[in-house]
Structures are given as structure tokens and as C-alpha cells.
Automatic annotation (TrEMBL):
Protein name: Beta-ketoacyl-[acyl-carrier-protein] synthase III
Domain Beta-ketoacyl-[acyl-carrier-protein] synthase III N-terminal residues, every copy: 106-183
Record-listed E.C. numbers: 2.3.1.180
Stated role: Catalyzes the condensation reaction of fatty acid synthesis by the addition to an acyl acceptor of two carbons from malonyl-ACP. Catalyzes the first condensation reaction which initiates fatty acid synthesis and may therefore play a role in governing the total rate of fatty acid production. Possesses both acetoacetyl-ACP synthase and acetyl transacylase activities. Its substrate specificity determines the biosynthesis of branched-chain and/or straight-chain of fatty acids.
Native organism: Streptococcus alactolyticus
Length: 324
């Protein structure tokens, strides 16, 4: 039986940084309101780079770090809710940009849980024994989906990309997973609604922009997610103390504080960087992981046990416990 292992991590964000004060120039908001409720102080917003451009930077960095040629890559999975186009996929664009001619590529849509769902999927491809290595990338340009006249949602998000190289390994690194969807609550966070349009159908309305019931999402995050984490840790025969770090989706510092309390772990175990990026949806966990590797918190030598936990639109939520 084949196993998979994360062997490289990389991230990239567009150069332009927009602070809370910058936002207060274009809407009725303030640094005090945003940072006290969310922890967010600034975010990267793209000027011209697209989602596939951001993902390409990550893919190139992963190849450079590994010393592998692009031809050695068997697959590329991109988690995104902000693709350049539905067709070709973001993964196909990245495959062309890096010249990974032997790789198949596809996008996955599970909103902020996208990276965790994609990583769980990639692990199965490698477990099948059919593929040796793949790139799993979360890449987003959420700025293009925001209604910038809606101060309650537009201040929360940012653009960026992060990803990992996943390779076959003789030893088990992916210890446990749980993935969840509750479509019945999907209406509390929506984006990119495309209405019907043809000479043979009734036209229905479009709603391009992200819309969110902030309170409902907050409650979902602090109720359902810690419960699922506790369940998974128990099912894996572990205790929460066995986790060296918990990499949680970077939506909001208040959500992280509440989760830490519910899980009985100190905030020291929950790296956070939404202060500098905002919520980058599927990119948030790999960007955080990459920063943690850069800071030396994560050694990537198989000696640490971490949890990846993401939650978002769908509603979706998912957890992976990984030896990293
Ligand atoms: N600046 C100033 N005032 C604002 C802003 C803003 N940017 N946005 C809203 N307000 C106002 C509201 O209009 C309201 O005013 P009113 O009382 O006069 O009507 C007031 O602030 C309070 O609004 P609330 O919605 O009650 O504020 P709350 O304390 O609930 O915080 C927030 C809102 C931050 C969105 C919170 O609900 C939250 O964190 N929700 C989670 C949402 C989230 O993280 N979503 C990310 C996407 S999903 C995901 O990644 C999981």
C-alpha cells in the first residue's frame, strides 16, 4: 500500500497591500471596527495577476524547492472558488504555465474547505499507487467576487495562493480525516450564482457577488467545527495534547479564540496570520503552513503531528490529522 507525504510547501501573495485605513477611505468603516471584530489589519489585493498567475508562482516555487522537473508531476489539483474561467480550469492553466505535460489537472470547489478536501483527494490518488507525486494548490482572487459597497463582507477577504508537493512515501503520514457537507445551510454563504439563460428557458437572476450571513457563519464555525475536531481526534485514538499545532482556516481571530477554548488548547498551538492576509478562502491554510515552515515552527521532517481544519461555504468543513 502506498502512502503520501507533504514534502514541500510554498505560498505567494500579490504585492499590493490594502490596510484597514485604506478601506476606510472608500467605505464607512474603521481599523478599530475591523481589527477588534476580526483580527484583520491588512490584506493583499491583486492589481493584475489572476488566480492562475498566483497558483503558477506557487507551483514554480514548489518545483524549485524540490529540484524536480515539471514533467515529474503526475497531477495538479487546484482548490478555488475564484477560477480565471470554468474552462479551462485553473489547474489546466497552471499545468500549461509550468510545462507539466505529464500531469492531469482539475479544480475543486469546496469554498474555504477547498484545500483540505483537495489534499484528502490527492492523498487517495497517491494511495491508489497510480500516481507518485502531485501539486495541491489553494489559489484565490476573492477581490473580484466582493461587493465593495457592502462593508460587512468586503473587509474580511484577501487574495493569495499556497500549496504543497505531495509525494509517495513508505510510511503513513495522513493519520485521520473527516470531511463534511451540509447543503441545507448553504444559503448563509453564497457567491457566483449563474442564472439560466437561453431562448428555451425562463431567465433567472444572477448574483455574482459573495453574500454572507455573518452571524450564522460565526455560529456554525464555533459549534460544528470543534465538535468534529474532537470526534476525529478521539476516533484516531489520540488526545488533543498529541497535536503539536492546529492549522485552522484563517477567517477571524475571534473564531480561533472560541475554538481554542472549546478544544482546551492554548492559542500558542494555533498559528494565525489573518492579520496580514484577511480570509483567503482555500489559500488560507497553505499560506499559513508555508509561513510556519519559513519561521521554523514546522520542520517538515515527519516529527510533528498537526491538524488541518477548514470550514466555509457549502456549508463544508473538514479535518485532517497529518504527520508532517
Ligand atoms: N465597519 C463598520 N461597521 C460595520 C462594518 C464595517 N466593516 N460591517 C458591519 N458594520 C456594522 C453593522 O452595520 C452593524 O451596525 P448596526 O448595529 O448599526 O446595524 C454593526 O456593525 C454590528 O454588526 P454585526 O453584524 O452585529 O457585527 P458582529 O459583531 O456580528 O461582527 C462579523 C460581524 C465580523 C462579520 C461577524 O459576524 C463574523 O465574524 N462572522 C463570521 C463571518 C466570517 O468570518 N466569514 C468569512 C467567510 S466564511 C468562512 O471563511 C468560514
Amino acid at each position: 500500500m502506498a502512502f503520501s507525504k507533504i514534502t514541500q510547501v510554498a505560498a505567494y501573495a500579490p504585492e499590493q497591500i490594502i490596510s484597514n485605513d485604506d478601506l476606510s477611505q472608500i467605505m464607512d468603516t474603521s481599523d478599530e471596527w475591523i481589527s477588534s471584530r476580526t483580527g484583520i489589519r491588512e490584506r493583499h489585493i491583486t492589481r493584475e495577476e489572476t488566480t492562475s498567475d498566483l497558483g503558477t508562482q506557487v507551483a514554480q516555487q514548489l518545483l524549485k524547492q524540490s529540484g524536480l522537473s515539471a514533467q515529474a508531476i503526475d497531477f495538479i489539483i487546484v482548490a478555488t472558488i475564484t477560477p480565471d474561467s470554468l474552462m479551462p480550469s485553473t489547474a489546466a492553466r497552471i499545468q500549461a504555465n509550468i510545462g507539466a505535460s505529464n500531469a492531469f489537472g482539475m479544480d475543486m470547489t469546496a469554498a474555504c474547505s477547498g484545500f483540505v478536501f483537495a489534499l484528502a483527494t490527492a492523498d487517495k490518488f497517491i494511495q491508489s499507487g497510480l500516481y507518485q507525486r502531485g501539486l495541491v494548490i489553494g489559489a484565490e482572487t476573492l477581490s473580484k467576487t466582493l461587493d465593495w459597497s457592502d462593508r460587512s463582507s468586503s473587509v474580511l477577504f484577501g487574495d493569495g495562493a499556497g500549496g504543497v508537493l505531495l509525494e509517495a512515501s513508505d510510511t503513513k503520514h495522513f493519520l485521520a480525516e473527516s470531511l463534511h457537507t451540509d447543503g441545507s445551510r448553504g444559503g448563509s454563504l453564497t457567491s457566483g450564482l449563474v442564472g439560466l439563460s437561453s431562448p428555451f428557458s425562463d431567465t433567472t437572476s444572477d448574483e455574482k457577488y459573495l453574500q454572507m450571513d455573518g452571524r450564522a457563519i460565526f455560529d456554525f464555525a464555533i459549534r460544528d467545527v470543534p465538535k468534529s475536531i474532537k470526534q476525529l481526534v478521539a476516533d484516531a485514538g489520540l488526545s488533543i495534547e498529541d497535536l503539536d499545532y492546529l492549522f485552522l482556516h484563517q477567517a477571524n481571530i475571534r473564531i480561533l479564540n472560541k475554538m481554542a477554548k472549546k478544544l482546551g488548547v492554548s492559542m500558542e498551538k494555533l498559528p494565525a496570520n489573518m492579520m496580514a492576509y484577511g480570509n483567503t478562502s482555500a489559500a488560507s491554510i497553505p499560506i499559513l503552513l508555508s509561513e510556519s515552515v519559513d519561521k521554523g515552527i514546522i520542520a517538515l521532517d515527519g516529527s510533528q503531528t498537526v491538524l488541518f481544519s477548514a470550514f466555509g461555504g457549502g456549508l463544508t468543513w473538514g479535518n485532517l490529522i497529518v504527520k508532517i
